[in-house]
Give the backbone structure.
Amino acid sequence: MKRMTKGSFVAAMTVVTIGLASVAGCRNPAQSTLPPSAISAEPPAVPPLPKGDVYADETVPTADTPIETGDTLEIVIRRGAGEEKFTGLVRENGTVSVGFMEIDVGGVTAAEAERRVQEAATAFMRQPRVQVALKKKLLKVKRIFVFGDVKKPGMIPMARNMTMLQAIAAAEYQETALLEEIRVLRGGDLRKPLILTADLARAFTYGDLSRNVALEENDIIFVPREHLGDANEAAKKILPVVQVGVMPLYPAYLLPAFTTVR
């Protein structure tokens, strides 16, 4: 009887394994069962993203914040031990109603509004003391988006003069991120965006910030885990992921009104 060699035994077992897998109905997990007609030729088009009114670091009113149409003023007029409270919406002509008085406050600060209300009230009462609280209308905040190999993908409120380094720090990039091949999609039209490359590995390795791209409103940042190739190859890999990610975040980001009290 002829002995089976080790090589022929391995070959035989391989054939048996393949045969059993075929009988059991197993398939390659990377093999699609969908027909070609079920695959979209290109991702759906997304209209240009809306723009915001202010930067994220401008949402809290300061002493220099001007009063604008749509803002609300909460006004307290004190005389002696008593006080009267009024709430008025600033109209398109810049005026607000304080009882029977019409005060022009358009474009001025809360401090100047206090002075104007006090001056008008002096004609009807002795030594009035006025306090004005400015409540801003809802603000649409400028934003950028970060996707890819980060812990917190999605929308990030945009601060003035924001850079790529600040954006990926906010999104918390993963240890596996390929920082020398970060891409920025710019232009608002996701079908034909301008694609920029940012090399933040140079910043961490050599302290070279020359490729730390300054961001613009609605920039979309993609942090890869693998090499993306040239611009065309990068676009093919990035755009489907980005379009799916941006859709739920499409409406302009609204912040609740804040109040400045003097």
